[in-house]
């Protein structure tokens, strides 16, 4: 572990290389000095990518953008803890990590670290009170959600659309398409997302969940953010029944998917009960002609009938489903 005294400064200077996409140089007072190319003077809204270079790249006559005294500059494992001598925006880390199989360095503050990994605990309570929910995972899905900690049984099979589905009576009734931000942008600009939403819109319920923040769209550098947000808005107008939900992280996107499909399961059950009641109160026909249009009776009428039939019913409140079933059976007998 190596440190530096309070009289040493952190220096940020203009990068003299006009061809570099990182306009600043950051010099840390540790060892013989560490120098990085970076894009800003402080990680205020996001972690800053840093490209390490040799100390000889620091110019002989640097154009200093910012000079700040240092209280502490200590390397701890794969990170450098940096505390500056000022009241605000004084704590940060230089983190050495791997991303996409490559060594990378990021400069992050407590604020940007919390945004990247929000300090939240997802609930373990059962969604919609279900003891168990069977979620079908598309067999082509890579690194699929496991729904660990939840009352979920997963089944792998090919889905006609979406990545996570709910099947009732051998019919796909709901599906959730999972997207990283990069995948969302690629499929949007390439036109694939439009076809995906058209397929999802044919289901009773469907959604797209994005494992990132909506604000991250405005930080894209390889495509104009306006193209992306306009495209998303146009798709939402065209397919209003398929919401595109930004859930910040993979963990929260997985949690949202579980809660959404559980809510659809409950909705399907309620719709089935409603259809049964509507069907039972539909007009009766004989030889194609309407004989009578028997409406569903009131609860008081069924309660009176049940007591006459020797069925125990409460004096007030809802009647049990089996009481209604007995009344319908007696009506059609």
TrEMBL record:
This is ERCC4 domain-containing protein. It comes from the Bacteria. Residues 134-214 form the ERCC4 domain. Gene3D superfamilies: 3.40.50.10130, E3-binding domain (4.10.320.10). Keywords: DNA-binding. InterPro entries: E3-bd_dom_sf, ERCC4_domain, Lsr2_DNA-bd, Restrct_endonuc-II-like.
């Amino acid at each position: 572990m190596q440190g530096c005294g309070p009289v040493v400064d952190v220096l940020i200077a203009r990068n003299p290389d006009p061809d570099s996409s990182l306009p600043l140089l950051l010099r840390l007072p540790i060892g013989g000095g560490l120098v990085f190319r970076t894009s800003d003077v402080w990680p205020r809204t996001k972690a800053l990518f840093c490209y390490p270079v040799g100390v000889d790249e620091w110019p002989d006559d640097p154009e200093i953008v910012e000079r700040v005294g240092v209280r502490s500059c200590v390397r701890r494992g794969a990170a450098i803890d940096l505390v500056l001598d000022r009241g605000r925006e004084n704590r940060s880390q230089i983190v050495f990590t791997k991303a996409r199989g490559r060594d990378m360095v990021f400069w992050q503050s407590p604020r940007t670290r919390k945004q990247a990994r929000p300090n939240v605990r997802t609930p373990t309570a059962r969604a919609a009170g279900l003891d168990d929910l069977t979620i079908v995972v598309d067999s082509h899905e890579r690194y699929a959600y496991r729904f660990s900690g939840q009352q979920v049984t997963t089944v792998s099979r090919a889905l006609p659309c979406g990545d996570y589905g709910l099947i009732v009576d051998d019919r796909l009734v709901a599906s959730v398409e999972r997207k990283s931000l990069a995948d969302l942008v690629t499929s949007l600009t390439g036109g694939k997302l439009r076809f995906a939403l058209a397929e999802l819109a044919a289901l009773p319920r469907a959604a797209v969940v994005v494992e990132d923040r909506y604000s991250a769209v405005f930080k894209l550098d390889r495509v104009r953010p306006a193209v992306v947000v306009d495209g998303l808005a146009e798709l939402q107008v065209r397919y209003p029944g398929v919401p595109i939900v930004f859930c910040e992280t993979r963990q929260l996107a997985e949690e949202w998917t579980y809660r959404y499909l559980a809510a659809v399961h409950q909705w399907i059950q309620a719709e089935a009960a409603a259809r049964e009641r509507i069907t039972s109160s539909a007009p009766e026909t004989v030889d194609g002609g309407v004989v009578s249009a028997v409406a569903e009776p009131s609860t008081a009428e069924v309660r009176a009938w049940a007591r006459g039939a020797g069925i125990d019913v409460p004096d007030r409140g809802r009647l049990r489903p089996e009481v209604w079933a007995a009344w319908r059976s007696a009506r059609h007998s």
